[in-house]
Design brief:
- The protein has 377 residues and is an alpha/beta fold.
- The protein folds into two domains: 116 residues, 3-Layer(aba) Sandwich (Rossmann fold), CATH 3.40.50; 216 residues, Dihydrodipicolinate Reductase, domain 2.
- The protein is 31% helix and 23% strand.
- The chain contains ten helices and 19 strands.
- The strands form four sheets. A nine-stranded mixed β-sheet has the order 16-15-14-13-7-12-11-8-19. A six-stranded parallel β-sheet has the order 3-2-1-4-5-6, sandwiched between helices. Strands 9-10 form a two-stranded antiparallel ribbon.
- Helix 4 packs parallel to helix 5 and helix 5 runs antiparallel to helix 9.
- The chain is globular.
- 49% of the residues are buried.
- The protein binds nicotinamide-adenine-dinucleotide (NAD).
- The site of nicotinamide-adenine-dinucleotide has 20 residues, from helix 4.
């Protein structure tokens, strides 16, 4: 087994720049080629990052590519991942992994038949803040987790995105677009989900584009934008999840987990870093997430906020896992379970009932500072 795996990217849009810029931080992977249905997009990224621009077919046929990273839009994820596996390559996808459970199971059959790996973002749960929370839970700092609350709520995407149509169509909405970060982090912190209940609605039947050349145009809404769900975990914990694009302002924190003996305040799971607060009954502590390699600030975002961004850590962990012959953290069982939880929330809201999950998974292995450092060059 080579010590470095060749990486190809399909989908050269917005997020591809992060993967390509951050890949050199990680051991065991080398970005070599990229492709897009739009050849100009592939050529532009290739020129920017010193890669080979290819057609999708040529990239899939390239012998120096071991893992293909699927950064296409969510509706294309299943088909592109299927083609990656059929080409005999390992597949690593952006979120949401796929849109339905049958799609996930079909990819599993393909991978199993050829001994290939499937991985999927989000990998932000491998970030310093979320691993600090994980360590606190595993050390019993707040006792067994019995409940919690999560909120991912805003006024929506149409204010800033010039073409926000897809956000309001089936396959997106706040649950499928942002839910993966929250649900994946809950599963890594407290384990798999057993059943869900939900009420779902739409704040408005249309949304008005707020920027760009189409400013003022109305786009139709065809998926719930206001979702309040209850998740019962296999360990008995009950967590509420508010996911909405119909909220102008609110005062809730991103994630609070309640244990027998205390509370952990977990920052936004959309990011690797952030402030974790632990109240264990004896007072509040705020451990410094910069002691963990994936908490070190390495960029300033568009809003001028310092960020620790290690996107691609899940990909690097999958490459290392292939080389070392161990399970990878952003694994297929986890990604499949998260897809089922998200669809079950929408189904529970639509049918006004409790939905029991049919899939489960184990928690991905914790990533302590030494394990994170081992993924870095
Ligand atoms: N933009 C972000 O900040 C962000 C953050 C995290 C995750 N993501 C996820 O990453 C994925 C991509 O997001 P994005 O913002 O980069 O989207 P984007 O629309 O900017 O880019 C997607 C690219 O995929 C290409 N594409 C679409 N269908 C294709 C196909 N069948 N074959 C080949 N190429 C195809 C498009 O031409 C486009 O260049 C989504 O799943 C999204 O949820 C995005």
């Amino acid at each position: 087994m080579p010590r470095t795996l060749g990486i190809g990217v399909i989908g050269c849009g917005n997020i591809s720049a992060s993967y390509m810029a951050l890949a050199p931080l990680f051991k065991g992977i080398e970005m070599r080629a990229c492709a897009d249905v739009d050849p100009d997009a592939a050529a532009a990224r290739a020129a920017e990052y010193g890669l080979r621009a290819q057609s999708v077919d040529d990239l899939l046929a390239s012998p120096d590519i071991d893992i293909v990273v699927n950064l296409t839009v969510p509706v294309a994820h299943y088909d592109i991942s299927r083609r990656i596996l059929q080409a005999g390559k390992h597949s690593y996808s952006e979120k949401p992994f796929v849109l339905t459970l049958p799609e996930a199971e079909s990819l599993r059959r393909l991978a199993d038949a050829s001994g290939l790996r499937i991985g999927s973002a989000p990998d932000t749960f491998m970030g310093a803040a979320h691993q600090l929370a994980r360590a606190a839970i595993d050390e019993g700092r707040v006792g067994p987790i019995t409940g919690g609350t999560c909120h991912v709520m805003s006024s929506g995407m149409e204010d800033w995105h010039p073409n926000p149509d897809f956000f309001f169509q089936p396959g997106a909405g706040p649950i499928l677009d942002l839910g993966p970060y929250y649900i994946t982090n809950l599963v890594q912190l407290i384990g798999p989900v057993a059943s869900v209940a939900a009420m779902t609605g739409m704040g408005r039947p249309t949304r008005t584009i707020g920027s760009g050349p189409r400013m003022g145009q109305e786009v139709p809404v065809a998926t719930p934008t206001n979702i309040h769900a209850l998740l019962q975990f296999a360990n008995g914990a009950i967590v509420t999840l508010g996911a909405s694009w119909d909220v102008k302002a609110h005062g809730h924190s991103n994630m609070e987990l309640y244990g027998h003996d205390g509370t952990i305040f977990v920052p936004d799971p959309n990011f690797f870093g952030g402030e974790v607060r632990i109240d264990d009954g004896a007072g509040e502590t705020r451990p410094d997430d910069r002691d963990h390699p994936f908490g070190r600030i390495n960029k300033v975002d568009n809003h001028g906020i310092d960020r620790a961004d290690y996107r691609g850590a899940g990909l690097a962990d999958m490459a290392a896992a292939i080389i070392e012959g161990r399970p990878h953290r952003c694994g297929l069982d986890l990604a499949t379970h998260v897809v089922e939880v998200m669809q079950a929330i929408l189904q529970a809201g639509h049918e006004n009932r409790v939905v029991r999950l049919t899939t489960t998974c184990t928690r991905p292995e914790a990533l302590d500072p030494d394990a994170a450092q081992a993924l870095l060059v």
